[in-house]
Amino acid sequence: MSEILIVDDERSMREFLEIFCQQDGWSTRSASGVREALKLFDDKEPKLVITDLKMKGPGGLELLKAIKKRNPAVEVIVVTAFATDATAMEAIKLGAYDYIQKPFQVEEIRVVMQRALERQRLLRENVTMRVELTGRYDFFGMVGRSPRIQEVYRLIEQVAPSKSTVVITGESGTGKELVARAIHFRSPRNKAPFVPIDCSSIPEALLESELFGHQRGAFTGANADRKGLFELAEGGTVFLDEIAEVPASVQVKLLRVLQERKVRRLGEGKDRPVDVRLVAATNRDLESEVAEGRFREDLFYRLNVIRIHLPPLRERLDDVPDLVRHFVAKLFAEAEGPPSMVLDEALDALRAYDFPGNVRELENLVERAVALGGGRPLGAELFVDHLKRRTAEVDLGDLILPEGGIELDSILAGVERKLIKQALVLSGGTKKDAAKLLGISFRSIRYRVLKLGME
Questions:
Q1: Which domain holds residue 215?
Q2: pLDDT > 50? residue 132
Q3: Does 41 share its domain with 68?
Q4: Which segments of 202-304 does DSSP mark as H helices, in order?
Q5: Which among 448, 434, 315, 317 has a CA at the least distance from the CA of 380?
Q6: Residues 374, 304: one domain?
Q7: Domain check: are 322 and 444 in the same one?
Q8: Do residues 76 and 57 share a domain?
Q9: 273 Cβ neighbours under 8 A, 6+ residues apart
Q10: pLDDT tens sequence across 307-318
């Protein structure tokens, strides 16, 4: 059942639209103003919004802009008392599906609503079709078919057409730059440059010049005028990786760029307009950075318009086989030779591993195995040494006993079960070899397997 959000400061109009929608089988919620509407929207996203243009306080245009920033795929119908009202035309330019003049016929609004919902359905099916045609296998370099990564693909499809700033979060090695590139190349800006910069790799003294440029003589060594990355990306996308590493002095100037869409080169006395979309990424918790005073709160809110979170590889281990085959094929394509076959035993061993280094660690591990394999099928033995070494690096320093206590036997049994399972996978199911990996006797592993009901 499609949900409709109705926004109007006239109670009689809200009630009329609610009754009409509910009679046609739609569920509804209503609000008397923009703030209340956005609170309801954030609580549960509707399929369609019907809003009056002119209300007490902020009006329908403000609501439309806020909704399109949150999710460009949500359709908005505006209601106006004047068919030639300039604001109605502006609403269409801002992304409203259509406008309806008061007073309106019931059948008129019914047809517009049905068309808006049908358009949304077709767009959704179009996204799904494109995804299914590629098997959700390779999406701008991102590989996987698990539900977690499919959700990332869908978000990219939804936000790419908009102009909104995007923040990509996730652990190191999850592929945040790939997401940024996908957003750029799925956007109307795809013919213009995509300019990435790793904010953590550039010294503070140089970062401002890299981003905003400088004039000749601005500092020692500035022998010529130089454009910054924002100017170089004109019409395209700037990707700021590790945005949390930007020093406070540069954060202020970055905020100004976002607010005014202008840059000022070092040593220059005038502003230069720039038309760029900003996509940022971080492996830190930005809210915590703000709370600790390391990141400006106003910059955080300017950046945090749309957020996409990349799950760690351990939360989508079903994607490991596809990723392994992708990396193997990529390596052999570069070498212009037929790819090696990957044995199931190798995939089983990899799926039993947590990958603290995420996709980047897996890619490096596959490259190492291919190099050592010499063209032969890739078996578990090519991965075992790395997996054994990392599994053995158990860090107990972060374990904290909660005030309410724990069930130690249960926790230890869980750890024991997990390690035995990994050892059996790495040894191809041979208990004798698994016992060696665990540093216990054959008799001991037989007892433990029986005790834990793993036989």
A1: 138-309
A2: no
A3: yes
A4: 204-212, 229-232, 248-260, 286-291, 297-303
A5: 434
A6: no
A7: yes
A8: yes
A9: 261, 262
A10: 999 999 999 999
Say which DSSP state 79 is in: E
Q: Which residues contact 78 (CB under 8 A, 6 or more apart)?
A: 50, 51, 52, 53, 60, 64, 88, 91, 96, 98, 99, 100
pLDDT of 253-294, one tens digit each? 999 999 999 988 887 778 899 999 999 999 999 999 999 999
Q: Distance between CA atoms of 438 and 420, rounded to whole angstroms?
A: 8
- Identify which has the larger pLDDT, 195 or 219: 195
Instruction: Give the integer Cα–Cα distance in Å for 176 and 265.
Output: 29
| Residues 148 and 292 occupy one common structural domain | yes
- Cα separation, 200 vs 314, in Å, equals 25
Mean pLDDT in residue range 170-194: 93
Q: How many residues does the chain have?
A: 455
Instruction: DSSP letter for 128, please.
Output: H
CATH of residue 150's domain is 3.40.50.300
CA distance 394 to 407: 20
Q: Which residue has the tokens 């330019």?
A: 93
Per-chain mean pLDDT for the chain: 83
Residue 388 backbone dihedrals phi, psi, to 5 degrees: -65, -45
Residue the block writes with tokens 């956005």: 38
Q: Are 75 and 116 in contact (CB under 8 A)?
A: yes
How many CB atoms are located within 10 Å of the residue 386 CB?
15
Alpha-carbon span 58 to 49, nearest angstrom: 16
Q: How many CA atoms lie within 13 A of 275 on its CB side?
A: 4
**Are 182 and 321 members of one domain?**
no
Number of Cβ within a 10 Å radius of residue 222 = 16
| Residue at token pair 């569920």 | 27
Tell whether 176 and 300 lie within a shared domain: yes
What letter represents residue 374's amino acid? Answer: G
pLDDT in the model for residue 133: 42
Using only C-alpha atoms, the chain has a radius of gyration, in whole angstroms, of: 28
Are 270 and 334 in a shared domain?
A: no
Helix then strand then coil, % of the chain, to nearest 5: 50, 15, 35
